[in-house]
Write a structure and sequence with these properties.
Distance between the termini: 37 Å
Largest sheet: 7 strands, mixed
Number of strands: 12
Order of helices and strands: EEEEEEEEEHEEHE
Strand content: 35-45%
Strand order of the largest sheet: 5-4-3-9-8-7-12
Structural class: mainly beta
Number of helices: 2
């Protein structure tokens, strides 16, 4: 677990008053974030539903699964990125290089995210409390000829480290987490958590479907 206790590089005395997600630059002595985030421009991860592959920016392919701990998210209906209005799940997380990142899912993959949200809700937890693993699952559309092949994301989770979760939730609370490219004034929110431009409060579980 990363600790918020750091030493002043000049005096070597413990520095007080830092937030859990802050540390001291050992070269210049400045207070800096433990995480890299250019506001509104998170690192862009993608799920290609045609190939069933995860990637960074559609260029660096990562394989058929991706593991991450959400720090913020929204589930909403909107027309974004040149596509017609549909249901989306936009999840934000911190990757292995400590970069704030985002990934979008739509269609049946969003339904599968809800299948994780529901049991967590009844255990008084949220997606922020777990590490998700998204895996591409092959599907076939036999209603057309030749048959079509596509992929949806299936999800499983395990509980995350409680101290790290607390630190990352404090970071998400203190910083506006959003992606400029997907920001519109027409989105209809179904639920959100720590999203920087939430249009409404999260709705009760009974209203999410």
């Amino acid at each position: 677990m990363e600790t918020a206790r750091v030493l002043d590089p000049t005096t070597l005395e413990p520095v007080t008053g830092l937030k859990s997600w802050q540390t001291i630059d050992q070269t210049h002595g400045d207070v800096i974030s433990r995480y890299k985030y250019l506001e509104g421009h998170p690192r862009n991860y993608r799920f290609d539903a045609k190939e069933g592959v995860f990637s960074i920016n559609g260029e660096k392919k990562l394989g058929r699964s991706l593991t991450f701990q959400p720090i913020a998210w929204r589930i909403f209906i909107d027309s974004i990125l040149g596509q017609p209005a549909k249901q989306w799940a936009e999840l934000f997380f911190i990757d292995d290089q400590r970069c704030v990142s985002s990934i979008l899912f739509h269609g049946y993959s969003v339904d599968n995210i809800f299948r994780q949200i529901e049991p967590l809700y009844y255990d008084d937890r949220t997606l922020a409390d777990v590490v998700l693993t998204a895996t591409a699952e092959r599907k076939e559309n036999t209603k057309i000829q030749p048959k079509g092949v596509y992929y949806i994301a299936q999800f499983r989770y395990e509980l995350a480290d409680a101290d790290l979760t607390k630190q990352r939730q404090e970071f998400a609370a203190d910083n506006r987490i959003f992606r400029q490219e997907t920001l519109t004034d027409t989105a209809r929110f179904k639920t959100s958590h720590r999203y920087g431009f939430a249009a409404s409060e999260p709705q009760p579980m009974s209203q999410l479907h």
